Amino acid sequence: MSRHFCFCIPVRAGVFLFSFISFALATLSAGLGWFIFHLVEANKLSEIEDKMTDDEKTSFEEGVHKYKWAIIVGSVIFTFIALVSFFGFIGSIVRNRRMVKAYSVLTIFNFLLGSLAAGFLLYAAWSHKAFCVTIDGTQSCTNNHLSVGQKIGFTIGVIVQWLIQLYIVTIIRRYYTQLEEEREYRHDFRLNPTGAGTYEAKEGLLATQAPYPYADNQHSFGHHA
């Protein structure tokens, strides 16, 4: 039985849409990361510094060279997300259970990380403590100047976004459960076909029947009766 979300939309369509969006965004992010890494290795950062001032160029180049490892890690992560999202996209088309399962596990993992980030943002919004970061021996601190109304609005926005992400995770999980149920049904039907007029899907329509036991000479009534 096909499952739905938003009352009438099949979960398969939801997985198709979400996986495509995830694949597109992750591919763009990974492509940008690998492009910047290529410019760093080839000493061609000047190609993307046209609209920067001299001070901005210096800071940008120093930061990119210093944190080149972060660019590599980020590019690898987004490449992995794009790959798994592609599996989910293809899986929704061909109804492949393993591909959809891999995509479902990835979305759950991303949701957990996003929940931690949302919790930190809410703590930062409602906390009155200053956040300080030390860079090259220089400490830089920022204070929270949000009003109560702004904090409430920010909190509502974070909660709504969190609920949407949870709903997406649930939709993808529903489709995986649907594929599992379809697989179990096909397996049970092949083993135990029931009902008049039904037949085994993998058997021919003209299945061989056992001979009638009284059709041979030893059991039939003949002239010796």
UniProtKB/TrEMBL annotation:
Pfam families: Tetraspanin
GO CC annotation terms, alphabetical: membrane
Protein's membrane topology: Multi-pass membrane protein
Claim: Transmembrane is one of the keywords in the record: yes
Location in the cell: Membrane
Sorted UniProt keywords: Membrane, Transmembrane, Transmembrane helix
Source superkingdom: Eukaryota
Transmembrane segments: 12-37, 69-90, 102-126, 152-176
Protein name: Tetraspannin-domain-containing protein
Taxonomic source organism: Trametes coccinea (strain BRFM310) (Pycnoporus coccineus)
